[in-house]
Amino acid sequence: MPPASLRRAGATLLFMLLSAAVSVRVEAQAPARPAAARLAPSLRQLSDNAPRPLRVSVTDEAAFRQWLARTRPGAAAEAEPHQKGLLRVQGLSAPVLADCPWVKFVQAADRRARPERELGGLDFGVNKVTAVHARFPTLTGQGLTVSVKESPLDIADLDFRGRLLEPDPLAATLNSHSTIMATIIAGGGNTSPDGRGVAWRARIAQSSYDNLLPDDGAKLAAQGVSVQNHSYGVDVENFYGQEARAYDQQARQYPTLLHVFSSGNSGQLPAPTGGPYAGLDSLANLTGEFKNAKNSLSVGVTDAFGLVNPRSSRGPAADGRLKPELVAYGAGGSSDAAALVSGISLLVQQAHQQRRGTLPTAALVRAALLNSADDVGRPQVDFVAGYGQADALGAVQTVLDGRFVEGTATTGQERVFPITVPAGVHRLKITLAWTDPEAAAGATSALINDLDLTLRRPATNQTWLPWTLSAYPHRDSLARPARRCPNHRDNAEQITLDVPVAGTYELRVRGFAVPQGPQAFSVAYELESGLTWTAPTKTRGLEAGATGQLLRWQWTGPATTARLEYKPVGQTAWTVLSASVNLADKLFRWTAPDATRPGQLRLVAGATTALSDTFFVARPLALTVAYSCPEEALLTWRKVPGATQYQVYRLGATHLEPLRRLTDTTLLLTTAEVAARYFAVAPVVAGRVGPRGATEDVLQEDHGCYVRSFAPRLLVTDSVRFDLALGSVYRLQAVALERQLPDGSFLEVQRLSPVPGLTMDLFDPTAPAGYSRYRARLTLSSGASVYSQPERVFRVVQAADVLVYPVPLPAGEPLRIVLPPNESAEVRLFDLTGRLLRTEAAEVGVIKRIATDALRPGTYLLRIRLRTGAEITRRVLVL
């Protein structure tokens, strides 16, 4: 006989196996929930049961297909790619499917995705992206890949040059939305500085939002995608569905892959009918059930002052979880805000690579982003702004400074991490995040593994709990401020402690209930204090003379004021811009001087002085292509006061690269250099390179080889004159007007030397009657000639004559009449029987057109009575 302990263990194991078998059999044959609960809320409200494309979650695909073939042979079921247990069904109504014993959940399969953007601008200073670019120039997203899931983007856009993965040249660009999103995330700044995105050296992959389920994870991994952006939505949906579950499942399968969703622009709409929050206006209105996923980020939108846009969609999720988690600036709506957070996520990932040599888990990226966010709206967390305004600088510094810990926990296990808080810290903030296992579609509570975060001070045994919101479905309850109490709904928790006493504290993470453990987790923390500038920066200055530009700083401390001052480089005295600014405002409107020069700002608050970067006040320097010839091109630009040199850039394999630095305001490009095609220029003032202007394409047809335009004053005239416009007179000796002779050669009829300027009037004093062909010939100092395109002119023979053309006249083409100078006339048209068909007036200086649509083929008489009294008759033949 085996020992009693072994017998008991064997019996326990047998009981567990039998229980599991029974559980599987019961789940497969009879779902626990009633049929109505297995329908998505939108399907429960339908008044008809008409068949529509539906997606079902099944417990046993083979058994479901057998049921379908036996009971509904006319219906069709197709497996969803890369999604086990999900099928797309046609030909059955939702209630019929919900009654099937093998079906767990039913929802609509085809909801049309829509971009969530309106027209607007861009300001990377709001979320401190410009500060990251200035302080951490190596954080560019290089080596990482972002995927933009929506409609195809413009693969010819210069800002994506050399960084698009698997571009499809045959894909139709349906709208500009995806191109704008990719530019915000990873634009290279090749078209202009405004085209530079957050992670401007990252690679860019694309996929379609026609499929609302996650993309093939294996393909995303093969492409190296670590962030996927979703700036689109459907109708308001407030439930945890098949798509939310699939995204949570993919997060578990690919722990370093982060999905970022826009929350939507439906913040003023009510929650959908059905569900616990039905009928509550301006709440629970995320645009898509996939945005209810636990392991992704949903992002709402603010204005440039940090105020949440009323149209920004808000939470809670269907089970009361906190949504959206973040907000960010987006002049074009929540689409822009999500794209910006996607770009920041890439920078956080690269920061971790630089510190640890590996990609961080998505849970750590979430923890860093949520912990560093600036509180906006109601204090602490809320269902409108989530954890607050995304702070790129704070998130990146969290990772670079190593202010995070990671570990695992099981049920009842507690992990303890000591942290030392120095004196002078204004706020201690800690955030716990973990990638939770996927729940069942339609679950009323999505959280599976429940962890608890607490902060303890050993010296006094004081403890602090996370901030938790009320999820009770009443407007007043949902608007209540967060309270310190255990959180058993969210897979992220945050504790803040204002003005902590210096000393040692303990961050404690405990497994409250971990049925699918051990559960990995990440904790990020920061010690907030002090005053720092965030905008303008050395990489992003201010526009000279522009009104209402925003100066930004970060302040964590008690309420106080400061003196704001400005000083141009080279001067010793500071100019007071405001004697008293409220530091808590964190911004100030200012009209910069209308002059190009570098300068600095400073804030003085008692013994504290904060200096900004040395930044440029300037207008972007525009580049002009004076001419573009096959063998060379000439670039010119305006002289900038104070500039000692100019930096010229050309487009390389992926980004603009320095080409040459010179003191002149012109640059002659060789044939080899012209091949680069795209160029820009920036001034160098006081040894610093200023802002460059927009990039110019030297091969654009409008530039031409010296000749901008060559056109006759009138196509039909009694004197032949041309207007010639040039791009440059550099090395130009003479300009001549030439007329083509009957043998095909050209005769010079006028010559200008020296060339009088960039525009001139050319004249042929001996022009023959009828049609003549002309061109302009430019003679260079090298002896070479440059020609304009030829133009044709019709010259009237006698000033007193009247021109009627064309004759004979094709039926339907208008008959044209040209009068002598300063003449008007009455025009009458007769048939050969003498019947008057039409009478019209011809005005001075206008080519009169007579419609002939109603005329049959034949001969007609045209009688023209001039204002001077003479009458002229013309025979007109209509073919």
| CATH 4th-level superfamily of the largest domain | Peptidase S8/S53 domain
Shape: globular
Domain module count: 6
Major sheet attributes: 6 strands, parallel
Helix content: 10-25%
- Count of helical regions: 13
The strands making up the biggest β-sheet line up spatially as: 7-6-8-10-11-12
What structural class do the secondary elements suggest?
alpha+beta
Rounded mean pLDDT score = 90
CATH class of the largest domain: Alpha Beta
The CATH topology assignment of the largest domain is Rossmann fold
Radius of gyration: 37 Å
Low-confidence stretches: 1-31
Approximate strand percentage:
35-45%
Write down how many β-strands occur, each being a DSSP E stretch of 2 or more residues: 55
Q: Based on the structure given, which CATH architecture of the largest domain is correct? A: 3-Layer(aba) Sandwich
Give the terminus-to-terminus CA distance: 119 Å
Describe the structure in your own words.
There is one protein chain. Helix 6 (177-186) links the parallel strand 6 and strand 7 (203-207). This protein is of the alpha+beta class and 879 residues long. Helix content is 15%, strand content 35%. It has six domains: 1-30; 31-108, Alpha-Beta Plaits, CATH 3.30.70.80; 114-528, Rossmann fold; 618-697, Sandwich (Immunoglobulin-like), CATH 2.60.40; 707-795, Immunoglobulins (Immunoglobulin-like, Sandwich); 803-878, Immunoglobulin-like, CATH 2.60.40. The protein is globular, with a radius of gyration of 37 Å. The strands form 14 sheets. The chain has a six-stranded parallel sheet. Residues 1-31 have low confidence and may be disordered. The protein has 13 helices and 55 strands.
